[in-house]
Amino acid sequence: MNPFSSGTRLRDMIRAIRACKTAAEERAVVRKECAAIRSSISENDQDYRHRNIAKLMFIHMLGYPTHFGQMECLKLIASAGFPEKRIGYLGLMLLLDERQEVLMLVTNSLKQDLNHTNQYIVGLALCALGNICSAEMASDLASEVERLLLTRDPNIKKKAALCSIRIVRKVPDLAENFLSPAASLLKEKHHGVLIAGIQLCTDLCKVSADATKHLRKNCTEGLIRILKDVSNSSYAPEYDIAGITDPFLHIRVLRLMRMLGQGDADTSEHMNDILAQIASKTESNKNAGNAILYECVETIMGIEETSGLRVLAINILGRFLSNRDNNIRYVALNMLMKAITVDSQAVQRHRTTILECVKDSDASIRKRALELVFLLVNDTNAKPLTKELIDYLEVSDQDFKGDLTAIICSIIEKLFQEKKWYIDQMLKVLSLAGSYVKDDVWHALIVAISNGPDLQGYSVRSLYKAFQTSFEQVSLVRVVVWCIGEYGEMLVGNVGVLEVEELMTVTESDTVDVLEACLTGHSSDFTTRSMSLIALLKLSSRFPSTSERIKEIITVHKGSIVLELQQRAIEFNSIIQRHENIKSSLVERMPVLDEPAYMVKKANSSQENIVAGKSSQTSLAGTSVKLPNGVAKPPAAPLVDLLDLSSDDAPVPPSTSKDFLHDLLGIDLTNSSSSGIVPSGGTDILMDLLSIGTPVQNDISTKIVSSNQGFAPTTKPTFPTTVQVLDLLDGLPSNGSVAGDQSPLYPSITAFQSSALKIMFSFKKHPENPQVTEIHATFMNLLSDAYTDFVFQAAVPKFIQLHLDPASSNHLPANGNGTITQTLTVTNSQHGQKSLAMRIRMVYKVNNQEKLEQGQINNFPPGL
Amino acid sequence: MIRAVIVMNTQGKPRLLKFYEFQPPEKQQELTRSVFAVLSGRPDNVSNFVEADAIFGPGTRLVYKHLATLYFVFVFDSCENELAMLDLIQVLVETLDRCFKNVCELDIVFNFNKMHTILDEIIFGGQVLETSSERVLKAVEEISRLEKSASSVSFVPKSVSGRFGR
């Protein structure tokens, strides 16, 4: 006897494990046991093999590795005693899987045991085979199993039948061998054998169309008889569950009938009577009875349409819905969901009951019912259903509100016929559950309001009213802020009053009160505050009387600890103080947002979201690369080759100020240049405006910095304004550039020269910030034709950040008679270690012919 | 097809794991934990059905029954009838009850072998084998009888000799 082999009994080991107070203790005990078992195995200790495997099974259940015991299982199976064999087979099923080669070694033992005289050993072998056999084993042992199907012992017979299912699944070609034995099993009297036989037939139908045909022809009658017998039979206590005779047999027969009836009208017709009998006669006060009814309904729905059976079936489900048992209601809803594709009219009749289920106390039933309601709404019942749901929203559970809100919103969005109804309902939802409304929903509302000029006044007034009572609903507040910013004067002046409205008086300072509350309220988040700030800027130009007060509010935020807010406050302050003349055009009302484009985008993004899970980030990154006027930037494919300088993947911090400049320009440019022309991607402006609030994630746009000049076709007419706008932002960086004359001088270089073009770079550095270099680029035309639409682009390696200011012009006169200048600011994060490098590309038109030049600049003076 | 039978206690400790499609032991533990996370969060007054798509793959559902300190969980695919599965849990529990005379968690912990034998007589390779707890019981009793008679000849003497050997 091995002195190290642990003498503990299985029971003692379980006790020891149970006594462990911590996971570490448990691990220690298991480790010790495993070590003992391993050494016992290596000693080839036969006495304890049986016990070792029993222990390993317990250890396996706790999740520890037990592969070292696999061979032991095979040895146990090969031994003669029943207890050894039993544990061996149990271990085989638990510890091994069909993919392991070890398993092949067991085929022989299995074959012997399948031919054993002891029926229990045959049973064990069948059980193991049915649980883990691989395709090879299936082919090797199929004939043995086939033979066992014909034995007289019912215990062996039923196991052999179920084992055949596994074999047929592994090797579908064997199906025809099993067909006739399976069909003859249907004539058995023993319930267990019948159930197993029917399951085998069902599986044969799944793998082979021939089998379906054969069984349909020969067995339909038999199945109907079984069902008749079992449902009419007198009390049979052995197979009785809660007073129903053998519900499992019922269910299996019904399932096989469904497979046979599908796609065959005659067979379906044949089953008609018995299905009707079961549907109407089965008692429905017990779970077992309902299980039969449920299966019966599924069969009626599955087979070909026959007379009034379907209505009967759906009525059974309707009855289920008012059952007190949660489980029954749950399956009924599930089934109705499937039935709706078959006969939606019949399901509609139970609408009120389904609606009641939305208010169920069981969350999973509520959720099902809600999904079903969503499938049931159509043009005719949308209004009353929405009303019901919104009423319920008020009293529903907190954790259900999210789902409920989402469904209500999509019903409203999908089925509204008049805009006023849409706005009214959305307003109700926003004020009841605004915190649960998703961003794209309230964005859509804003787009809709922007597109309904006759409803804007009404909307802003209703929103104002709703805000008074529901100021804690985030999404509502945002819509209110946006609408007051845009349509504040309609609120004060009572513009476009509808007949149904009650008049109210709102003063200019009331509106500012609202915005101030949103800006300073502690429940407002960052997005809401940013939006409020913009709305205030807009109001200050609409309501001159309040501008002093607004200026004060904005001034307070110059000290905000949130960088974004502080920056905006400083910029807005500068607009109010120094640029009164352009303020009104700067903050004019937004152009009408492009509704169809937004809908397409929304649909796409929601699809994207489904695909990429919760990747709102990716969709944002996709949308945030924009042009000044909101036209989506064409994918920067041509620039990609410029980027191959940047080999290492250090992320570049996004430059938000530049983005904001885009935003500002966007508002400005579209208003002053293309008055009345709606830019094609108008909704992006909305996005721009909103993106102020969301952290900027457009790493693409910072890597590929291209000059604003690049978009000359649209910016051209408004060029002077652009400069002015830049001008007003000058206040920020210029503070730091006072000491410019002390900086070391770097020689100017000719960065690029071709037959057509010459580019000079001159450099300026601030001593307090050696990483930053300001480069002044001068472009000169060497040809005799003027260049138009001149665009300069540059790319730098990742360790360098590049910022391009707008160029002085996009028109380059001929023969060097004029120049374009442009300022580039580069920040070399590895200053002193690596020198600057840059790839450039120039695109321009000569006599309306597009030209492209590119090159690499390596001759930067050292020390930059 | 039934995919798995899980019995665990209300602390999430597995008491019986039977997967009819092979899962490596780590995966078995992970699945058990996810099932427990779902079940422990469910109040008493809700239905016994849970969609298990997120845990066991698309189309799977689970039925559970909470009895004393144990959860009995059956995981199955769309071919099975949920209500019938609920009855099948009942069959299993009744059989255990008759086998152990008022079954409790400890019986199952110390006799998990026997649990497997009982389960193998009710569910076979993911298919329903027998639904009469009387017949199941008969088969199980026959197996234990065989076991005893065999071990009285071969097994017990060995273990006795083993005890002397130590």
UniProtKB/TrEMBL annotation, chain A:
<dbReference type="GO" id="GO:0006886">
    <property type="term" value="P:intracellular protein transport"/>
</dbReference>
<dbReference type="GO" id="GO:0016192">
    <property type="term" value="P:vesicle-mediated transport"/>
</dbReference>
<dbReference type="InterPro" id="IPR002553">
    <property type="entry name" value="Clathrin/coatomer_adapt-like_N"/>
</dbReference>
<keyword id="KW-0333">Golgi apparatus</keyword>
<dbReference type="Pfam" id="PF02883">
    <property type="entry name" value="Alpha_adaptinC2"/>
</dbReference>
<comment type="similarity">
    <text>Belongs to the adaptor complexes large subunit family.</text>
</comment>
<keyword id="KW-0968">Cytoplasmic vesicle</keyword>
<dbReference type="Pfam" id="PF01602">
    <property type="entry name" value="Adaptin_N"/>
</dbReference>
<dbReference type="InterPro" id="IPR013041">
    <property type="entry name" value="Clathrin_app_Ig-like_sf"/>
</dbReference>
<dbReference type="GO" id="GO:0030121">
    <property type="term" value="C:AP-1 adaptor complex"/>
</dbReference>
<dbReference type="InterPro" id="IPR050840">
    <property type="entry name" value="Adaptor_Complx_Large_Subunit"/>
</dbReference>
<keyword id="KW-0813">Transport</keyword>
<dbReference type="InterPro" id="IPR016024">
    <property type="entry name" value="ARM-type_fold"/>
</dbReference>
<dbReference type="InterPro" id="IPR008153">
    <property type="entry name" value="GAE_dom"/>
</dbReference>
<dbReference type="InterPro" id="IPR017107">
    <property type="entry name" value="AP1_complex_gsu"/>
</dbReference>
<protein>
    <recommendedName>
        <fullName>AP-1 complex subunit gamma</fullName>
    </recommendedName>
</protein>
<feature type="domain" description="GAE">
    <location>
        <begin position="744"/>
        <end position="861"/>
    </location>
</feature>
<keyword id="KW-0653">Protein transport</keyword>
<dbReference type="InterPro" id="IPR011989">
    <property type="entry name" value="ARM-like"/>
</dbReference>
<comment type="function">
    <text>Subunit of clathrin-associated adaptor protein complex 1 that plays a role in protein sorting at the trans-Golgi network and early endosomes (TGN/EE). The AP complexes mediate both the recruitment of clathrin to membranes and the recognition of sorting signals within the cytosolic tails of transmembrane cargo molecules.</text>
</comment>
<keyword id="KW-0472">Membrane</keyword>
<dbReference type="InterPro" id="IPR008152">
    <property type="entry name" value="Clathrin_a/b/g-adaptin_app_Ig"/>
</dbReference>
TrEMBL record, chain B:
<feature type="domain" description="AP complex mu/sigma subunit">
    <location>
        <begin position="1"/>
        <end position="145"/>
    </location>
</feature>
<dbReference type="InterPro" id="IPR027155">
    <property type="entry name" value="APS3"/>
</dbReference>
<dbReference type="InterPro" id="IPR016635">
    <property type="entry name" value="AP_complex_ssu"/>
</dbReference>
<dbReference type="InterPro" id="IPR022775">
    <property type="entry name" value="AP_mu_sigma_su"/>
</dbReference>
<comment type="similarity">
    <text>Belongs to the adaptor complexes small subunit family.</text>
</comment>
<protein>
    <recommendedName>
        <fullName>AP complex subunit sigma</fullName>
    </recommendedName>
</protein>
<keyword id="KW-0813">Transport</keyword>
<keyword id="KW-0653">Protein transport</keyword>
<keyword id="KW-0968">Cytoplasmic vesicle</keyword>
<dbReference type="Pfam" id="PF01217">
    <property type="entry name" value="Clat_adaptor_s"/>
</dbReference>
<dbReference type="InterPro" id="IPR000804">
    <property type="entry name" value="Clathrin_sm-chain_CS"/>
</dbReference>
<dbReference type="GO" id="GO:0006896">
    <property type="term" value="P:Golgi to vacuole transport"/>
</dbReference>
<keyword id="KW-0333">Golgi apparatus</keyword>
<dbReference type="GO" id="GO:0006886">
    <property type="term" value="P:intracellular protein transport"/>
</dbReference>
<dbReference type="GO" id="GO:0005794">
    <property type="term" value="C:Golgi apparatus"/>
</dbReference>
<dbReference type="InterPro" id="IPR011012">
    <property type="entry name" value="Longin-like_dom_sf"/>
</dbReference>
<dbReference type="GO" id="GO:0030659">
    <property type="term" value="C:cytoplasmic vesicle membrane"/>
</dbReference>
<keyword id="KW-0472">Membrane</keyword>
<dbReference type="GO" id="GO:0030123">
    <property type="term" value="C:AP-3 adaptor complex"/>
</dbReference>
